[in-house]
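Email to the structure team, subject: (wild Malaysian banana) hypothetical protein model.

Hi all, the expression group asked for a predicted structure before they design truncation constructs. Nothing fancy, just the tokens so they can compare against earlier work. One-line instruction: predict (wild Malaysian banana) hypothetical protein, return tokens.
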Amino acid sequence: MKESGGLEQRRRRRRWFCCVLCILILVLLVVTAVVLALTVFKIREPTGELVSVTVSGVSPRVDLPALRVELNVTLDLAVRVHNRNYAAFTHAPGGRTSLLYRGTQVGEADVAPGRIPSRGSELLQLALAVEVDRIVAELGSLLSDVVAGAVAFDTVTRLPGRVTFMGFIKRHAVATSDCHVVIGVSDLSVRSQDCTYKTNL
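Reply from the structure team: attached below.
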């Protein structure tokens, strides 16, 4: 009788120990999931920096019927994009950068598809076509800026793509950036830039 009572007591202890162990494992899994959600799996906006600007081409075009001269200038931009996430970001076709002068869009460039590794960077080379005739309305302001030695532009960039965690968890994302950039006239150096970033999932 005592042996059967002791055996039953040991069984109850084992069951209690198993229940406690299961609860501890469940709590540990929940804590791990919360930590991962707040750190590794939290989507952070990629950041960008305009590294250099060069003029690669000037193409005048004369429209005889309208008696109008159009001038297009091509700017080669080098933009470094840094991925702050613990996941790779693959940007798909359809990426685009628009250039604005005093609120008017004066140029645009396509962004080629690519892949930015986790916690890594990619240098994007953009050929941005500036349509000078679109600046005619602001010609007085542009001349004043040139005489002052610096021209301020705004850029809007949109990169659709997907974020890949651990090689198999994939989520669609669209990274956007809005930058205010001041370019020196004499040497085309980047005097200053201020950007805001956003990622939509």
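The first helix runs from residue 2 to 38. The chain has a mean pLDDT of 77. Ping us if the truncation boundaries need rechecking.
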